[in-house]
Specification:
single chain, 532 residues, alpha/beta, 10-stranded mixed beta sheet, 8-stranded parallel β-barrel, 11 helices
Length: 532
């Protein structure tokens, strides 16, 4: 009997050792997914950790690396997205929404971005309150939204019922602005009188210091864009990467377009609260707001220019205290900043850093993330809108979005938002702009396709779930066209994401603790390696 018991124990011990060895071997291997222009999301040969370094070492992640926690993937909800979706057959519509939002889908988005009043991917301008002087908000409503964008949001909630949302306006109601219209500048796509364009850069009247405690925030002279007859450079509104020059905007607005009267400022803060309340009635929970989308794009579509003075005044004296009083569960954060003028935006961030938790950045704002993180180590940073492209929705657009994903998150952003997730044809807006989307619908034959940008996002969001940690990053500029970024999931598995944006096959090594992941990347390809 004793011999039999010993034999059983010996055999059990052998099985335990074998299982441990098997688990150890599995932990050393990585499932490999690859996308090229010709083939999307293919399973490639597994990669294995090695005790020896192969090609050039491009990134090292130590065993005790902490990195920063990544919180959420999301997208914006716009009327033109709804129009494109509803051109498809019912089962196709469901497939698109499932693949984008379901927890077991492709992209697994958990956050949504909204706008109060129309944005540039609405069908036309509209406002939640068109009655001038309605400071009591008796006429404020979201009836337009209920018929349109709220229907789209509910379609997403079917697959992601735990989705949460945040909001920023593109333009206040026209009656609350000095130009009494929804755009900033005139164009063939709106009806604003050209004579009003001078307001943007007009010299300001002298205001006694005691009545304007934040007046000293504004930069002086030409740096702030002052000057009679100044016009907006149309090249500043180009969307293609790198076309807008090194300084954006070249001139800063000298006037805040929102009327700086306490009645207007308080009523606008109250509008944020009312919007949150009405959306809550539609089962759409908003837990964060930002005061303005792109205060530094002087737009022919819905927009509003703000100076540093106006930004600080509205947020510090009206929006933050009003939300804190009426909706303490809702965060007020600063954004969305689309400028690389660090010294300028620091003026109002300095005045708000103790009142907010995060800064939202897009477009040229990406260029100052490193500097902002150094200057404000206590703040979080959010990529509030992926760049929209020019409607081509081709492989080059996918590579650019892949670069943006890596660069924003690698530089410290802990949330990332796509702009339009589905559009028709070349994604033309009501204001004459062509833009990209993750899904492209052909209106002539009612077919659709998932664009290269869809797969660029999938290579990140499919396996990098909320609460993963970004542990290391090397940019495409630092690594000659091959961005590499490393995450560790909550289950402690590594995810290595790499892209080759060159015409040649590239090999590289990523060190993970004491082991090496040696990888080879085909020309123009996206890769995700997931530890098993």
């Amino acid at each position: 009997m004793l011999e039999c018991k010993n034999a059983i124990m010996k055999r059990l011990s052998t099985l335990i050792i074998a299982c441990a060895a098997s688990l150890g071997a599995a932990a050393q291997s990585f499932q490999h997914y690859i996308t090229t222009e010709q083939q999307q999301w293919q399973t490639a040969k597994r990669a294995a950790l090695s005790g020896r370094q192969g090609a050039g070492l491009v990134l090292t992640v130590s065993d005790d690396a902490q990195g920063h926690v990544f919180k959420a993937w999301g997208t914006c909800f716009n009327e033109l997205d709804l129009d494109a979706l509803e051109l498809l057959k019912p089962d196709e519509q469901e497939d698109v929404m499932r693949r984008i939002f379901a927890p077991d889908g492709d992209l697994r988005f958990t956050r949504g971005r909204l706008t109060m009043n129309a944005n540039d991917y609405s069908r036309a301008w509209y406002s939640c309150d068109t009655v001038a002087g309605d400071f009591q908000l008796r006429c404020f409503n979201i009836e337009h939204d209920k018929q349109n964008v709220i229907r789209l949001i509910h379609r997403a909630q079917k697959y992601q019922p735990q989705m949460t949302f945040w909001m920023s306006p593109w333009s206040p109601p026209a009656w609350m602005k000095i130009n009494q219209d929804y755009p900033v500048c005139s164009s063939e796509w709106n009806e604003q009188a050209k004579e009003k364009d001078y307001l943007l850069f007009s010299p300001l009247p002298t205001i006694p210091e005691q009545s304007s405690p934040t007046r000293s925030l504004s930069p002086k002279g030409e740096e702030s864009g002052q000057g009679e007859g100044a016009v907006v450079d149309p090249d500043e509104m180009k969307f293609a990467d790198g076309q807008r020059g090194s300084l954006f905007p070249k001139k800063l607005a000298s006037q805040t377009y929102f009327i700086q009267d306490p009645r207007y400022l308080q009523a606008y803060a109250n509008m944020f609260c009312r919007f949150i309340e009405l959306y809550a009635e539609e089962n759409i929970p908003i837990n964060m707001v930002m005061y303005q989308n792109e205060a530094y794009s002087y737009t022919p579509y819905p927009g509003c220019a703000w100076t540093a003075d106006g930004t600080l005044r509205f947020n510090r004296d009206y929006l933050i205290p009003t939300l804190r009083d009426k909706h303490p569960e809702v965060e007020v954060n600063i954004g969305t900043l689309n400028t690389n003028r660090l010294d300028y935006v620091s003026q109002f961030i300095d005045g708000l850093k103790d009142e907010v938790k995060a800064v939202g950045l897009q477009w040229e704002g990406r260029q100052i993330i490193d500097s902002l993180r150094q200057r404000y180590p206590g703040l979080h940073f959010i990529s509030t809108e992926s760049e929209c492209g020019n409607g081509q929705m081709n492989w080059q657009a996918g590579e650019h979005t892949f670069h943006l994903l890596a660069d924003y998150i690698g530089k410290g952003c802990d949330e990332y938002y796509i702009w339009n997730f589905i559009l028709c044809d070349q994604g033309r807006s009501a204001w004459g702009w062509n833009q990209n989307a993750l899904v492209q619908v052909c209106s002539s034959n009612l077919t659709f396709r998932y664009t290269p940008e869809f797969y660029a996002v999938k290579h990140f969001s499919h396996f990098v779930e909320p609460d993963s940690r970004m542990l290391g990053y090397v940019s495409r500029e630092q690594n000659e066209g091959m961005p590499v970024i490393v995450f560790q999931r909550p289950d402690h598995r590594y995810v290595v994401i790499a892209g080759n944006q060159t015409d040649n096959e590239r090999s590289a090594t990523v060190r993970l603790g004491k082991k090496y992941l040696n990888i080879t990347l085909q020309p123009h390809s996206f890769h995700t390696f997931v530890q098993e």
